[in-house]
Structure formats: structure tokens, C-alpha cells
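Researcher: Good morning. I'm working through a list of sequences from a screen, and I'd like to move beyond sequence-only analysis. For each chain I'm collecting a predicted structure so we can compare shapes side by side. This is the next one on the list. No need for commentary yet; just the structure.
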Amino acid sequence: MRSAFTHVGRLLLASIVCVAGAALLVYAVDPLQLFRPSSRAFYSDDTRVQNAGLIRSQRFDTVFMGTSLAIHFRQSDIDRALNVHSLKLAMTGSNSRQQAFVLEQAIEHGARRVIWEMDDFIFVDAADIETDPYLSVDLYRGTAKGIASYLFSAAMAKESLFTLLRSVPPLQGSLTRAAPYLPVKFALPDVDDIYALPRDFDVARGYNAAKTRAAFAYITSPVRSRFLGEGYGFDAMVRHFEQDALALVARHPEVTFDIYFPPYSILQFVAMRDASPPTLKIVMDLTAIAAQRLTQLPNVRLHDFRAIKAVTHDLDNYGDVIHHSPVIDAKVLSWLARGEYRVDPKAPLKPLDELKAQVEAYRVPK
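Model: Good morning. C-alpha cells for this chain:
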């Protein structure tokens, strides 16, 4: 009997030592850079987690927020175009609750300018930020619970071990080259590469009219067209716009917000027009409220890029009906830098009226 208790005790002790050792490894390596910046750090495309470390470890005066429509921008391009020291915090598929929370953390850590790609879908109803299963508020806030979940994470222990092995000179080159193909998240050697397209990416192959038309046919198919309006509820979207966007801007009059509506292809709105008219009405009505409310705030500059016909009607600029190519990324930055397509507070609905006219007149090529 005593022998059995001895074995259990040894097993328990060994388990405690292993867990403590793993936690110590995570603390020492700190792959997220929560405790200290590192010049030898690697980065992850898991932006909902990675952003918590970026906010604490990077130096910045401007943050760039958005969804997948803003995810491929490079910080170096943002810095060069806008003459800022930026931090890209865009998150694919993110909603306004998540974006507002992350922006709040960035502002607390020194951001004085926010570039915010704001599309209608971010305001769909979703979980409250305190119960959001996809974003750890405790990790961002640095609470005891958040730090414990980081230190005692088996996934972070694995990442830390790989990072440690990669720092060994004989292994450094081979493991760095192999990292993108291995089951590790922290594989990017440069913060500029987070969710950015490779520099040798074939733009013409990834973005072209054939892909855009195919996407339009797919989403307007009678079998799938009902999904165009999934999640769109006018009252809930207005409420989230007020709680997440307007309230954040109002709380921080010291911060300048450059908010822009991204240049969807015309086919996004035509798809709604033809297959889901109630959804199109919600989008247009929500835009009207957003434009009128945002342009009245003294620390907001609102830009609307959705009625730039030379861009939005050229289907070669898109990989589907909404995601535009890196060529348009560069144009967006140049428009922001020059203050082009800024919405006039005295005529906040003018760009929307232009868009409505274009959508009504557009005929889909056979």
C-alpha cells in the first residue's frame, strides 16, 4: 500500500515539475512578447491572439483596424504612405465588439490615430466581448487569469520550445525555412509579414474578373442567396454601431479617427439588389445613419470609397465580390494620405446617393 502511495506521489510531483517547467519555458521565451520585447521574436497569423502581444511590445502612434478587407496591408506601406509609425491590428471576420475592444487597448498603450476600415457586416449581432469565445479579454488586459492561461498553455509551451530550438545556431537556418510548413503558429520572422501576401504573389492570377463573376454567380444562386442577408438585422446593427463605434470615438476626443468605407465591387450591392433586396435596404439605411453621425464628430474624418466607378466597376480588381487586390490597397492609402473622397459633413449622404444610382443602373453582363 505504501508503495502505491509512493508511486502516486512521485507521479504527482513529476507532473507538477513538468507543468512548472513548461510555464517557466513560456515565461522565458515569451513568444507573444507580453512581458518583454524581443528582437529575435517570430510572429503568428492568429491575429486575435497575436494582437495582444503586439500592443504591448511594439512602438506605434497609429493603429490600422479592419476585417479581411484590411488584412493584407503591410505596416511598412502604411508608414510610408501616411508618414506614421503604425501597428496593423486587422482581424479576419471580426465584429465591431472585437474591434472596439482591441482598439481601446491600443489607445491605452499610446495610439493617437486610428485608421479604421469599417464595413457593414461588422455590426451584425454577436457575443458580448466578455463572453466571446474567440478573443481572450483577460489576455489583453493582463489579468491573473489571462497570464495564467498564457503561461500554462500547452500550445504556447510547444511554440516556446520550437522558438528555443530555432535559436540554436546550427538549427537556426533550417528550422526558420521549415517553420511555414510545420504545425507551429509563430513562423513569421518580420512583423511586416503578418497576414500579408507574399511579395512575389501573382496578383493577376489571384484577382481577376473571372473570379469576381464566379463569386457573384455563386452567392446569387437560388440555393445560396438567402445567406446574403444572414445576420443582418437593422435594429441590432444600429445598436452595435452606436455602442462600439460612436461610443469609442466619443470616449477618446484626443484621438483622430480616419474611418473609411471600403471599395466593394459593384457586384456586391448588385447581388443584394437582385437576390436579397431587404438586405440592400438595411445596408443603405445603416450607411445613412453612420455617415450622418460620424461626420458630426470633430475627431473623425470619414471617407467613402464605394462609388469610385473606375475601381469598383473594374472586376479585375477583385478576387470575389468584396476583396480587392493589393493594387487597390495602395490606392486606398494614397486616397487617405491626400484626403480624397472625404465625406463632406454638410452633405453626408452625397456619396451614398451616388452609390445608390450606380447600383440601380448597373446591368450584369451576360
